[in-house]
Amino acid sequence: MDGKLVEVVDRTDRVVGTAPRSEVHEMGALHRAVHVWVFNREAKLFLQKRLPDKPLYPNLWESSVGKQVELNESYEEAALRGLKEELNLSFSAGLLPIKFGKTDFGDGRNRELITLFTVVHDGRIKIHTEKMAEGQFFGLYDVRELVKENKVTPSFRALFKWWGREKK
Q1: Count of CA atoms in the C-beta half-sphere (13 A) of 23
Q2: What backbone phi and psi angles, to 5 degrees, belong to 45?
Q3: Model pLDDT, residue 1
Q4: Cα–Cα dist 45/43, whole Å
Q5: What is the distance between the alpha carbons of residues 150 and 148, in angstroms, rounded to a whole number?
Q6: In a 10 Å sphere around its CB, with 0-12 CB exposed, 13-18 middle and 19+ buried, how is residue 27 labelled?
Q7: Neighbours of 132 (CB within 10 A)
Q8: What is the pLDDT of residue 104?
């Protein structure tokens, strides 16, 4: 079991308690999360495909990075940690991801208050094969098709629809 703690929050992002990271889904507790979307200069979005043995949403495509925010960690710190841990990408203070916005998501087991960041990266991305099955850049038309075909996680689907409305 993962003993790292996360903060349980209400819909206004006020901390109402803590819980082990491994238990927040079982509890159905609203908790903080970050997603980072890595675009290249061609406006293609890097997605990762979840491993087939993942307990939630196996074999589905999801955000470039998705992380739960740990106890006493900011959304920005979690985003930078996720970029490093999941994609081997490091950014200095001058190249921080851009905060796009915050929304809440819930599908029963997974209830997250998500802050979405975007970043542009044209270099090589080295994925961790023990954490994801594969990763690749997709044009936005292809991302829309993956969403229509139910080949993405519910949280990515919700974020993609929200992002499309908010960026107009």
Answers
A1: 11
A2: -105, 130
A3: 46
A4: 6
A5: 6
A6: middle
A7: 18
A8: 65
CB 81 within 8 A of CB 34: no
Give me the CATH topology for the region 5-166. Nucleoside Triphosphate Pyrophosphohydrolase (3.90.79)
Locate 47 and state its tokens: 């997605």
Look at strands 31-39 and 111-120 and give their pairing: parallel
Give pLDDT < 70 ranges for the chain: 1-2, 92-102, 104-109, 166-168
Closest CA to 123 of 111, 112, 137: 137
* Model pLDDT for residues 32-81, shown as the tens digit of each residue: 999 999 999 999 999 999 999 988 889 999 999 999 999 999 888 898 99
The per-residue pLDDT for 29 is: 87
Q: What phi and psi values does residue 2 have, to the nearest 5 degrees?
A: -85, 115
Question: What does the buried/exposed string (b/e) look like for 84-106 if buried means 16 or more CB atoms within 10 Å of the residue's CB?
Answer: eebbebeeeeeeebeebeebbbe
Tokens 């809440």 belong to which residue? 104
Token duo for residue 99: 């905060």
Place of tokens 């829309």: 144
In the chain, the DSSP E strands lie at 5-9, 15-20, 31-39, 45-49, 61-62, 65-68, 98-106, 111-120, 134-138
